């Protein structure tokens, strides 16, 4: 089951408990959650297989979850990654990375003198969540080469050190 952060029903979960915020944005592998209010205190609930569980792990209600990757977003992402030889989905821009991991990948690509496009995932929450499903990769940055997902920062650094990244990018630039 794909976990998404869109809640179908906004009904109170238990007597004297009302929903305050939905969804709570989480990074995978944690599951999306809800923040609930009960008698003056906040409580986080986690969605699991369509069932919401409280701190005591007792069943308190069922929810329908929807995918953040809509058909329209998938089509758009397909066009973006196939129309550019190298695309980096990152936090910030290549001129102003807002994450150390994103900065590392930008510096690697710049050192190889590779032309690449960047897309700032911080500007659009739907894009950020949908891209995690699109690539089946939970973190950013995400590097695409010739329409294929290559990896995140660690994979890019390892491939750069081994020379594999240079070879792959040379082939991509020549095709």
Can you walk me through this structure?
With about 180 residues, the chain is of the alpha+beta class. The chain contains five helices and eleven strands, in the order E-E-E-E-E-E-E-H-E-H-E-H-E-E-H-H. The chain has a five-stranded antiparallel beta sheet, with no helix packed on it. The protein has a four-stranded mixed beta sheet with strand order 9-8-10-11, sandwiched between helices. It has a two-stranded antiparallel sheet with strand order 1-7. Helix 2 packs parallel to helix 4. It is globular and about 40 Å long. Mean pLDDT is about 75; it is low at about 1-60.
Question: What proportion of the residues form beta strands (DSSP E)?
Answer: 25-35%
The arrangement of helices and strands along the chain is EEEEEEEHEHEHEEHH
How many DSSP-defined strands? 11
State the major sheet: 5 strands, antiparallel
On the 0 to 100 scale, the average pLDDT is: 75
List the total number of helices. 5
Strand order of the largest sheet: 2-3-4-5-6
Helix share bin:
25-40%
Low-confidence stretches: 1-60
From the alpha-carbon coordinates, what is the Rg to the nearest angstrom? Answer: 20 Å
Q: Which structural class do you get from the secondary structure elements?
A: alpha+beta
Shape: globular
């Amino acid at each position: 089951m794909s976990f998404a952060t869109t809640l179908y029903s906004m009904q109170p979960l238990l007597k004297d408990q009302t929903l305050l915020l939905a969804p709570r944005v989480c990074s995978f592998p944690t599951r999306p959650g809800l923040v609930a209010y009960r008698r003056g205190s906040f409580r986080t609930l986690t969605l699991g297989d369509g069932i919401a569980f409280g701190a005591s792990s007792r069943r308190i209600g069922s929810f329908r979850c929807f995918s953040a990757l809509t058909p329209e977003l998938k089509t758009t992402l397909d066009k973006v990654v196939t129309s550019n030889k190298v695309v980096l989905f990152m936090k910030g821009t290549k001129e102003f990375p807002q994450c150390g991991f994103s900065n590392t990948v930008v510096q690697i690509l710049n050192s190889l003198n590779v032309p690449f496009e960047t897309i700032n995932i911080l500007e659009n929450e739907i894009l950020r969540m949908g891209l995690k499903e699109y690539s089946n990769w939970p973190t950013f940055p995400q590097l695409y080469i010739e329409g294929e997902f290559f990896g995140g920062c660690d994979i890019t650094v390892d491939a750069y050190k081994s020379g594999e990244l240079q070879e792959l990018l040379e082939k991509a630039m020549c095709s």
